[in-house]
Design a protein that fits this description.
By secondary structure, the protein is mainly α. The protein contains seven helices and no strands. The mean pLDDT is 95.
């Protein structure tokens, strides 16, 4: 059972981040840092060579820089920029492009759904539910962390880290 712990940790972090971003429009730094740290603990334990760990780290750094640029342009939130970098540590260069593609598609669909939702009248009792009212507010952003998390869950089984964890079980 311990052999699948890294998969459970990754999945739990993705689910928690997605729900947290949806309901609060934030992804906590402790979650992002924990996800990054968990990669650096997991990778050597499951046999990822140091050279491959360095490549995963370079993917995380590159996507942190891309995320920071997207944040600077107002396209995503700061938590999203850090979260995509931490998730990219786990997917590495081998799955970075599919991860970003799936996240972009999910993010586009999510944005369209939220725009549609914001154009519908909201029943009065729902305005008392803070996160529902916030999602309905046209001045608010889109919880893109939800798309990043869903993409991570879909892509992760295709990663080398996932396969190495499974091979230990």
């Amino acid at each position: 059972m311990l052999s699948i712990l890294p998969i459970v940790v990754f999945a739990a972090a993705m689910i928690f981040a997605g729900i947290r971003d949806l309901t609060t429009m934030t992804i906590p730094n402790w979650l992002t840092l924990g996800l990054a740290l968990a990669f650096f603990i997991t990778a050597p334990l499951v046999g990822v060579p140091l050279s491959e760990i360095a490549l995963h780290a370079s993917a995380g750094l590159a996507l942190l820089l891309v995320g920071m640029a997207a944040f600077a342009m107002g396209w995503i939130g700061g938590g999203d920029a850090k979260f995509v970098a931490a998730a990219s540590l786990w997917v590495g260069w081998g799955q970075a492009l599919p991860y970003l593609l799936v996240a972009s598609i999910f993010g586009g669909v999510l944005t369209l759904l939220i725009l549609f939702y914001r154009n519908m009248p909201l029943p009065g009792f729902l305005f008392r539910v803070n996160w529902i009212a916030r999602l309905h507010d046209r001045k608010e952003g889109v919880p893109y962390g939800l798309a990043l998390a869903a993409a991570g869950l879909i892509i992760f089984p295709d990663t080398d880290v996932f396969r190495m964890v499974i091979s230990l079980g």
